[in-house]
Write a structure and sequence with these properties.
Length: 300
Amino acid sequence: MLKIAWSPIYSHPLPKGHRFPMEKYELLPEQLLYEGTIEKDNLFEPIALENKWITNTHQPAYFKKLSDLDLTKSEIRKTGFPLSRGLIDREVHIMHGSVQASLFALEYGIAMNIAGGTHHAFSDRGEGFCLLNDIAISANYLIANKLSRKILVVDLDVHQGNGTAEIFGEEPQVFTFSMHGASNYPMKKEKSDLDVELPDKTGDDLYLKTLDRHLKKLLESVAPDFIIYQSGVDVLSTDKLGRLSLSIEGCKRRDKMVLDLAFQNEIPIMCCMGGGYSEKISHIVEAHANTYRLAQEIFF
């Protein structure tokens, strides 16, 4: 059974006019349920992740400042979010959603989190709409509990997974692969194990050929026994914050390529959603929904 983390807390309200589309977290499960891709039994509601698993990845001093709502104005500004208790509660629930989805992936082959993909959170700070890094926390949880020996992070958000790269810079059990826009945020890139930078306006054909080539090489060279997939849809040509030019169909083919790789090689995969900032919310929801449709089609 496809297991998917979702909670009403994911749609934590932001001030009017804020550019982050929180409504997608409510609309996406509604769409999947309406069309029959999933049923209510597919959804599980995460709880707050235990602090010890957060500070297994993030510096305790940073997490304490975050929990105490004690960030400076500059630190708050870099996150892109107005700091509040509700926002912190949302974050720690999202972290549990990805950890639990990783455990379900070990059982069922794949599991997903309707939120997550918070790859700009560093060990000691938040950036770019990311306060805590669910990718890193999930990977470290699996390693600490001896549930994986080699994890491949496939980060296909339009922005480099700079926080994930920093956290795992010296960790041989996690291989970070980020394919992103060369001239997009963050302007100062970190060093992933493999960074593939794409020029502005890259379309479906070049994107998919490049991805196919690298995935095949990584499967052989890394030999992962678990994959964490950051499936951001800000690669779309309609995205306000991206600079690439994928169609919705091209984005779907991208997801199929990653999910096929995991399924055919019997590698458990946890998928987290990442970014999506198209003007029309329908474009964001449709592109994200394709990831879930493919998961059902390929794995079940």
